[in-house]
Write a structure and sequence with these properties.
Layout (H helix, E strand, L loop, with lengths): L3 E4 L2 E4 L4 E7 L8 E7 L6 E7 L5 E3 L7 E6 L4 E6 L8 E8 L14 E2 L3 E6 L1
Parallel strand pairs: 2-11
Antiparallel strand pairs: 1-3, 3-8, 4-5, 4-9, 5-6, 7-8, 9-10, 9-11
């Protein structure tokens, strides 16, 4: 089974920045979309950002627009999430996700096939 490997995350004060990275541990099939989701205890996993690997289009949830930026290397199936001006409400476990086939559901967990193990992001006041 293909595994997505995340790195980054940690504890930061409000207003600070963090960088999350995601790659694959093995040689993989083409990844059409790579995205980031986040989840807090008792809540559903929510979409954060996505990158269409073929043309580098990017999408963001409204609450992170202008603060978070997703980038990546399509040839290497890697993706990075730069998070700036972090707020306490950004605290969550962040998951990397990848779609192995074209999908228009880049904003939904249903659009993705592979997931990382999650990395904790804590933003303090």
């Amino acid at each position: 089974q293909v595994q997505l490997v995340e790195s980054g995350g940690g504890l930061v004060q409000a207003g600070g920045s963090l960088r999350l990275s995601c790659g694959t541990s093995t040689r993989t099939f083409t990844r059409y979309v790579m995205g980031w989701f986040r989840q807090t205890p008792g809540q559903e996993r929510e979409f954060v950002a996505a990158r269409i690997q073929s043309d580098s289009r990017t999408y963001y949830r409204d609450s992170v627009k202008g603060r978070f930026f997703i980038s990546g290397d399509s040839a290497k199936n890697t993706v990075v999430l730069e998070m700036n001006s972090l707020k306490p409400e950004d605290t969550a476990v962040y998951y990397c996700a990848a779609a192995t086939k074209p999908t228009t559901y880049w904003h939904s967990i249903e659009g993705y096939d592979d997931w990382g193990q999650g990395t904790q992001v804590n933003v303090s006041l």
